[in-house]
Amino acid sequence: MPHLTPTTRAVFFDAVGTLLHPRPSAPTVYAAVAARYGLALSPADVRERFIAAYLREEAADVSANWLTSEVRERERWHTIVCETLVGASDPEACYRELFDHFARPQAWEPDADAHAVLSALAAHGLVLGMGSNYDARLWSVLAGFPQFDVLKPRVLVSSEVGVRKPGSGFFIELARAAGCAPAEVLFVGDDFENDYAGATAAGLNAVLLDPNDRYAHVPHRAKRLSALLNEPEA
Predict the structure, then answer these.
(1) What is the pLDDT of residues 12-28, one digit of tens each?
(2) What order do you get walking across the sheet with 10-13 strand by strand?
């Protein structure tokens, strides 16, 4: 398993975009909800609005040193949804519908490689877990996927930890939950800032999932989860 160092004792995974993918896509779901409330947006329109709203909330979290809570996460998503779907006849109803939608396992599908990779890593005797910037809804989502049972004893959710990725406090708590020193933990995720940069800054090792070759400068990356079990990609 070439992405693992001789000192690796634990492997933790990001959730959304790494082990779980929204199906249909989030912009498609948002556009459908908007249409029911009189707002005509294409998924591309939604994506553009969503990114702008999301980045404004990220800036607010930076100024708060990445501190969070369940209340903060609900407020954060309320703001993102309402700003993304401004012009809808009932933004509050849009928010409630979307918030509830993404709490259901049916809104998600597991990565195609997830089960095989987790099984192989578990057979290798590694401690496995999950570290996510989601909120309490992650638990209801995971309840629908028994293939992730091996991770459930060590799932860290930022709203419960009290700090979001890429805050170092999140990764320090993750290493504590793994029962390892930070350098003994490998973190795998698809977000360069939150997952790769955050983990490495806290002293963990990391692999960035980079299916579209956007981060050629990153020394440790993979196009898909199964590459964790194969030769590292340049």
Answers:
(1) 999 999 999 999 999 99
(2) 155-157, 127-132, 10-13, 185-189, 205-209, 221-222
